[in-house]
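Please fill in the sequence for the structure shown.

STRUCTURE ENCODING:
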């Protein structure tokens, strides 16, 4: 069964940092592009960052320069390092394959206080 599980969220003060993890099951993880998305209450889910199977990255303008996406294929895991967090980063964060879309999981809550 192919599954992605998000973890690492929490409560942090503005200016702080968190590292999110997206752990995958399945043997084909290394062949897929993976993206991080977020959804705040009352808002649409939005793209945050993506990484291809070859390691090419892409970021939403709102997080560029603050967030870094990376992957460790040996661990079947994609990470999102979030620095200089702002209250507007508060959302539930989800990961998913970009090129093979699974149903959305539980996500992990990130709350940034003022």
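FILLED IN BY: designer on duty
SEQUENCE:
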């Amino acid at each position: 069964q192919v599954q992605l599980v998000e973890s690492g969220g929490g409560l942090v003060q503005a200016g702080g940092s968190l590292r999110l993890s997206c752990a995958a099951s399945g043997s084909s993880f290394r062949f897929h592009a993976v993206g991080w998305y977020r959804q705040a209450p009352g808002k649409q889910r939005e793209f945050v960052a993506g990484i291809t199977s070859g390691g090419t990255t892409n970021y939403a303008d709102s997080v560029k320069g603050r967030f870094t996406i990376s992957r460790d294929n040996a661990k079947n895991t994609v990470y999102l390092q979030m620095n200089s967090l702002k209250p507007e980063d508060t959302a539930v964060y989800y990961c998913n394959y970009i090129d093979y879309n699974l149903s959305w999981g539980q996500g992990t809550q990130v709350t940034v206080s003022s």
